[in-house]
Design a protein that fits this description.
The structure is a single chain. With about 120 residues, the protein is mainly alpha-helical. The longest helix is centred in the C-terminal third of the chain and has 25 residues. The relative contact order is 0.09.
Length: about 120
């Protein structure tokens, strides 16, 4: 089963309930959510307790675009050298810079704080 939510910056409560109901009714064995980052992660976290499912949930973003052919992946050299993120940043700087320049260091900082706090 597939479900395509409305394309807009924020979902209404009715939109959210329709998505939750569709997911719960489908009772998936595996659930992929692709809405762009970080929207998909925030939506999943916000509505996690309303999802009556018992399966793995993955937020996968651009993977759907890659398979649909609407977005191009980095050339294999970039992929093999774990540099696909840099290729995407160089290809779409206006869209990606916050994620990589602000988001990644912030994520690493929070991981470091967690690690130090548990020692």
């Amino acid at each position: 089963m597939t479900y395509s939510p409305p394309y807009k910056p924020e979902f209404s409560e009715e939109d959210n309930q329709a998505m939750i109901q569709a997911i719960n009714t489908a009772n998936p064995d595996l659930l992929w959510i692709g809405m762009t980052a970080p929207k998909q992660e925030k939506w999943t976290y916000q509505h996690w307790k309303e999802l009556d499912i018992h399966c793995h949930v993955g937020t996968i973003g651009a993977v759907f675009d890659f398979y649909a052919g609407t977005a191009k992946r980095a050339p294999m050299w970039w992929q093999k050298h774990s540099m696909e993120w840099l290729y995407r940043l160089l290809s779409e700087p206006n869209r990606m810079w916050r994620r990589y320049v602000i988001g990644n260091p912030l994520f690493l900082w929070n991981i470091l704080k967690e690690k130090i706090g548990k020692e």
